[in-house]
Amino acid sequence: MASYALQRLIQSVFVLLAASIVVFLAVYGIGNPIELLVPPQASALEREELVRRLGLDLPLWRQYLVFAWNALHGDLGRSFVHGVPAIELILTRLPATLELVVLAMTIALAGGIPLGLLAGLNTESRASRLIMGGTVLGYSLPNFWKGMMLILVFAVLLGWLPTSGRGETVEILGLKTSLLTLDGLKHLILPALNLSIPNMALMIRLVAAGTADAKAQDYVKYARAKGVRPRRIVGRHILRNILIPVVTVAGIEFGSLVAFSTITETVFAWPGMGKLLIDSIYQLDRPIVVAYIMLATFLFVTVNLLVDLAYAALDPRVRLVGEAG
Amino acid sequence: MTPVPVASGDDTALRRRVLRRIASRPTVKGALLVLAVLVAFALLAPFVAPQNPYDLTALNVMDNRLPPGEKGMAGFTFWLGSDAQGRDMLSAILYGLRTSLLVGLAATAGALVVGVTVGLTAAQFGGRVDATLMRVVDFILGFPAILVALVLLASIGRGVEKVILAIVVVQWANYARLMRAAALVERRKEYIEAAVNQGLPTAYIMRAHLLPNSIGSVLVVATVSIAGAITLEATLSFLGVGVPVTQPSLGLLIANGFEFLLSGEYWIPLFPGLALLALILSINVVGERLRRSFDAHRH
């Protein structure tokens, strides 16, 4: 187990390193941020001074080394536009995104598990067909358009909910949250719903397939023959067994929710780090873009590593294959 | 040397029977019909659209933001309303469909070519080649496609061919992985061994035996992926890093309508979105069914 864990850890570090090179080259290698940052009336001297201060006069590989060295010390550069450390700016926006993602994941699981069970227990029923048809619609709807239609219906036509922003927040342990005020929740519900729908469709399909599969297993047949009540069969024998893949997929999908929150945040003007990324792309604020991607990469790599390690701990076959290979 | 038939007669007949049965299901039939109509409109847009939406001389600013069904200055009826420049939404949607379909198909085709080549190479040569190629595949698949495409386009700029390139970059790895898995299974079969023992060149074996016999499942997945590519393009265009304003896709039309959502001019973002949804949904319904039947006949 220890050697497998070490092997995966080293792999993860290499992935991070490769990602940092690719991202750095993609973002800094192309285009010229100086044009955007230097005021048109600046003299050639002022211009040179700015270029030197931002380190843009060095060859690309030197810029990378400086970047990598600083990154290892927790410094991912300074925003060209806001003049504050990029990592700081992103971290101040992180709670808003996490709030959105966590609520979306909760909605997806709370809706997806029961609906998936319902669809999987009786695959030929009308309700099951309806639910499964609904999932096709759920992942077909383009995320940004669905968000706009939610705004159109619930904010513009019905006037029940606000169109954008984060609403009133309260501070807990130094972090602002919208979860604890009525106004905040009103602002949160549409974006969270929008973000959760494709994920809920995925959960429904996963649970339905798992349930249909588990239903035919010998241990379920045995429990039924033993006279265990149907409710208990579903709760203890079926649900427990399908929860393992559900938890795994929820873990992996967490990363994609963070990525997709960029779209939802743009539509609902939600002040999270996804909106910050899009704004920074428009303003060519490269340190922010690079810092965002590096942070996101770190997040994905860590989650993947944890999922793999949890798997190895639970299933000896994984680590045996890992060690043999 | 006579070429070896790539598939036996039984296989072809089975395939035809399955395809016919799929096409006869009512939902699939409906989806195929919608898809055929949308593709026909996209192809014939210059002939069937009431207006050339990008010929600025044909537009009248006085006709801006007319609701659906309203008549304009020249007595011309805007069935789906008009946008801020007085452009007929129906015509804009028909032209937008063209761009969306073009990007979706070209990107999927490009990703297929790259992915299948890489997957086949990895399966054929194995060892270090395989390990290296699959490392790259894993690396790419480790990131959400939307983020990779977004950052890539943010640095190379907008443009139809750039969006296609970005989608190829994020999607080829999927096909490579699938192709490798299918080709590895196929390679263990006796006819491949026979071909190797006959001393046939490796490139010939890959092209004439391995490729046609293992590409089936990859093509089925590619069908569904066209919908994914179209959605990705629409999303990127919505975020402002996709196709240029001179050649708007459905996604860009929706983005342009975003600002009018709150002022009640709902038709500007609504109708292009419905067209996009119809396109994606019909591809997904057909592709989904195709995949299920394919899986059922495999096992």
Word description of this protein:
- The complex is a heterodimer of chains A (325) and B (299).
- By secondary structure, chain A is mainly α.
- In chain A, 77% of the residues lie in helices and 2% in strands.
- Chain A is built from 13 helices and two strands.
- Chain A has helices at residues 2-28, 34-37, 44-54, 60-72, 86-121, 126-140, 143-157, 182-215, 218-226, 230-268, 273-282, 286-314, 316-324, and strands at 170-172, 175-177.
- A two-stranded antiparallel ribbon of chain A has the order 1-2.
- In chain A, helix 7 (143-157) crosses helix 10 and helix 10 packs parallel to helix 11.
- The longest helix of chain A is centred in the last third of the chain and has 39 residues, at 230-268.
- The radius of gyration of chain A is 24 Å and the shape is globular.
- The mean pLDDT of chain A is 81.
- Chain B has 299 residues and is an all-alpha fold.
- Helices cover 72% and strands 1% of the residues of chain B.
- Chain B has eleven helices and two strands; from the N terminus they run H-H-E-E-H-H-H-H-H-H-H-H-H.
- Chain B has a two-stranded antiparallel ribbon with strand order 1-2.
- In chain B, helix 2 packs across helix 3 and helix 9 packs parallel to helix 10 (250-258).
- Chain B is elongated and about 75 Å long.
- Chain B starts with 8 loop residues before the first helix and ends with a helix.
- Mean pLDDT of chain B is 83; it is low at 1-9.
